[in-house]
Structures are given as C-alpha cells and as structure tokens.
Design a protein that fits this description.
- There is one protein chain.
- By secondary structure, this protein is an alpha+beta fold.
- It is built from 2 helices and 4 strands; from the N terminus they run βαβββα.
- The radius of gyration is 13 Å and the shape is globular.
Length: 86
C-alpha cells in the first residue's frame, strides 16, 4: 500500500485507487485551479503505476451523504475511449 505521493517512480502489476470521489480527489482543500491541477497530477501518477490492471473505486454515499465520482474519472474515461477508437 502506498499513497499517491509515495508512488512516484514505482510500478505494480495491479493498482487500486480507492475513494475517487469529489472532495477526496481532488481533496476539498484544493481551492484554487493550481491546487486542483496538482491533485490531477497526483492522480495521473497513481494511474500510470499499473503495469497490467487498474481498479478505481468511489462510494456513492459516505456517512449518509450522497457523493459523486471525481471529475478526474470523466477525463480518464474520455481518454480511454479515444485510445480504443484509434
């Protein structure tokens, strides 16, 4: 197990990114565009650590509150659709 910060330069066969919901990724404290972009870069680090399989999860509710998937997942999905069409 490693944090996104500690994952730089490392690789694993399977990577799990857990909790990819708004408020967690990007973290609620990312209150400027520059901070959101830093969070996006950290997510990219995590995504690119997987050699064979990437699993990304998020909860629809937490502590009784509705949650939404991280905006970064829409970006990831759009890019994967483009790469599979090429």
């Amino acid at each position: 197990m490693a944090t996104l910060h500690a994952a730089k330069g490392l690789e694993w066969d399977v990577v799990f990114i857990i909790g990819a919901a708004e408020g967690s990724l990007p973290i609620v404290y990312a209150d400027t565009q520059a901070r959101v972009e830093e969070e996006r870069r950290l997510f990219y680090v995590g995504v690119t650590r997987a050699r064979d399989q990437l699993v990304v999860t998020w909860a629809m509710t937490r502590s009784g509150r509705a949650r939404t998937a991280s905006r970064f997942l829409a970006d990831l999905r759009a890019r994967s659709e483009v790469s599979t069409q090429a």
